[in-house]
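WARN no homologs supplied; continuing
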Amino acid sequence: MFSGIVEEAGKVIDIRREKGNLHLTVQCSFADELKIDQSIAHNGVCLTVVSKTADSYVVTAIDETLERSNLGDLQVGSLVNLERSMLLNGRLDGHIVQGHVDCTAVCINVAEEDGSWRFTFEYDFDKTMAKRGYFTVEKGSVTVDGISLTVCNPTENTFQVAIIPYTFEHTNFCQVKRGVCVNIEFDIIGKYISRLAELNQ
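OK structure emitted
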């Protein structure tokens, strides 16, 4: 479980395909603190450390993960948002994030707003999935590439987020432009409420 508070934007330094699997080597400042089998969120996708060195580690993404996320779009040199699993004795500064990406969305607009940025994202709307909580609500939470953010101006298939300079500079949002694909995880609490409402009909 994660909180959506990105620790660092790591750098992809090697990519290797093996049948349907994608092995990513990521360089980051806390690599020496990691353990084999440890879970880390990569752009919001929970992956397991399978090997490591003093300054990098390797994780493997399988076909199902690649189909639901943007990890297959990564290239050597890409920045990837990293978060280690949440400590139960700490503050929950973001919101409850599972690390299970629901879908991808495409950035359709970036507007600079006097020191901050407003990003608009569009995703494929599915009425059946929306009834199960796969949608956004005004001032609700959404995870974009592993970052816990507050929703603004949601429509049936779009939403906006406001990005402050710190987030822009310390995550991969500095690389998000019109046409870029991002990972989306909708709020788990909304999914549970929608499921309960469905069962009680």
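The chain has a mean pLDDT of 95.
OK
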